[in-house]
Write a structure and sequence with these properties.
Layout: E1 8-10, E2 19-22, H1 26-31, E3 38-39, H2 45-48, E4 58-61, H3 66-77, E5 82-86, H4 88-94
Parallel strand pairs: 1-5, 2-3, 2-4, 4-5
GO molecular function, one term: transferase activity
Pfam families: Rhodanese (PF00581)
Keywords: Transferase
Length: 110
């Protein structure tokens, strides 16, 4: 059983100025994330929804696309325009896009 279809975009189709929201947990974010992305873990989203960037649309990313798809479906139900980034950060890194880590560590997608 699957939920409602959510809007999806591939990393290659992401606009250069896309507002990215990374919904992975803090340890995943610290290990490696897209520069300029916002971070709001999926586990904290409902209580912190007021912290969402005011962007239209908001491109949501996780490790591989599963959690972000659930977040996009949730946000759509709340009236937020959101799009799932297909393949997540694994696809982002696989396309050779920049990844940065907290504290100057070697960035990696975990």
């Amino acid at each position: 059983m699957t939920g409602p279809a959510v809007p999806v975009v591939s990393v290659a189709q992401l606009p250069a100025d896309a507002a990215l929201l990374d919904v992975r947990e803090s340890d995943e974010w610290a290990a490696g994330h897209a520069p300029g992305a916002s971070h709001l873990p999926m586990s904290e989203l409902a209580g912190r929804i007021h912290e969402l960037p005011d962007e239209d649309p908001l491109y949501v990313v996780c490790r591989s696309g599963g959690r972000s798809a659930r977040v996009v479906a949730y946000l759509a139900g709340q009236g937020y325009p959101a799009v799932n980034v297909e393949g997540g950060m694994l696809a982002w890194a696989g396309q050779g896009r920049e990844v940065v880590a907290d504290g100057g560590a070697e960035p990696q997608i975990v």
